[in-house]
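Take our chain:
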Amino acid sequence: MPNLLTFGDSNTHGTPPILVRGEYRRFGAEIRWPQVCLRALGHGWELAEEGLPGRTAAFDDPVMGAHMNGRPGLRIALQSHGPVDVLTIMLGTNDVKARFAPSPEAVLAGIAGLVDVALSLEMQDRHGGFEVLLICPPPVEEVGPIRGEFYGGARRSRGLAPLYRDLAEARGIGFLDAGEVISVSMQDGVHFDAESHARLGMAVAEAIRQMQR
């Protein structure tokens, strides 16, 4: 049976828009976009959800911990699950926080490192070959209870989609601009509401079907 591994941050984990800082909540399986995608792909698919709230593409977080760095996280995920047939990567939102303040190109460098890990001979051989779908998250908005952490992030995040698209083309992998499908909730400027999870899950399923034709 084909296996899908979804690697990302809180929006892959299923964190709803934040009402109160520090409160842990998670959408149920009927709402989370990876589960929506799984149902849309149809019978026979299996899913490994690897969404860690706070995960970055390449930064050790001085507040949340070094384990937020996606580089070792992806290696662990690919060695924990398998065989993998399709890997989705959707990261970059947390990288645009003020405490990192990278250029869009610096965020891309982190994403490129993850793609290189996924396409390495070690990982491809381990799983018998798998396809990669790179998803650019929608731009953040500086509103709500965590807007201070994302100071300047709106501008930085708006420069990511063209860079992600070009990287995907250069590496011969799939690409989806989530910002063309959904937008973040204006409640906290970062997370997706239930309707957006539904739309994104369907869009990812269609992108995977297109890749496999």
